[in-house]
Write a sequence for this structure.
């Protein structure tokens, strides 16, 4: 919130920081998770079900974007799929819960 | 029905500015993370947590934390880093 004279404005925090000469410090996390082998279309479908209020897109290079959280294939074998999950601190809640779902939800079936 | 997961769109804190690599190393040590190796790079520093296969890439205006799926460690690193940066 900025106040000029008698007026009060609600502004984007990033924009206000720029105006005050403060540089935002960008924090990004990248973590790896292994899930059972499946196509990225199936991963997309499962994520869509878990995150019905987010845009869940399959990109042209075969990665998935959930909001601004990136899910990318890092390696695959017959049984498993290694994924890189990367998100900015601004998307911490989404990134962290998405990562945990991949780790616990999908990955829990690999032990059979 | 698993009902989906709700998230908030904004972080609880906004962080800005920069931090010294020594400051972060000291803060990590205070939180019990002492097995670190610091490397200088062309654009900043890399802190390597040797036993955890985890890397913190420190550059001007940005920090990137690479974890091998260790979520409790990632959260600890996140909180340590946030505490070292000016925020509102």
């Amino acid at each position: 919130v900025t106040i000029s004279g008698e007026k009060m404005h609600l502004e984007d925090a990033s924009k206000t920081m720029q105006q005050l000469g403060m540089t935002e410090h960008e924090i990004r996390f990248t973590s790896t998770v292994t899930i059972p082998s499946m196509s990225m279309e199936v991963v997309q479908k499962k994520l869509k079900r878990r995150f019905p209020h987010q845009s869940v897109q399959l990109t042209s290079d075969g990665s998935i974007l959930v909001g601004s959280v990136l899910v990318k294939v890092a390696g695959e074998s017959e049984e498993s799929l290694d994924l890189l999950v990367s998100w900015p601190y601004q998307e911490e809640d989404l990134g962290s819960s998405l990562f945990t779902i991949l780790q616990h939800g999908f990955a829990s079936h690999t032990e059979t | 029905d698993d009902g989906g997961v709700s998230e908030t769109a904004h972080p609880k804190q906004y962080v800005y500015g920069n931090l010294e690599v020594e400051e972060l190393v000291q803060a990590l040590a205070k939180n019990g993370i002492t097995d670190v190796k610091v490397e200088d790079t062309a654009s900043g520093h890399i802190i390597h947590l040797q036993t955890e296969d985890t890397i913190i890439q420190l550059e001007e205006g940005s920090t990137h934390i690479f974890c091998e799926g260790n979520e409790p460690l990632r959260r600890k690193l996140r909180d340590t880093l946030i505490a070292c940066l000016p925020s509102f």
In short: The mean pLDDT of chain B is 87. The first strand of chain B starts at residue 36 and ends at 41.
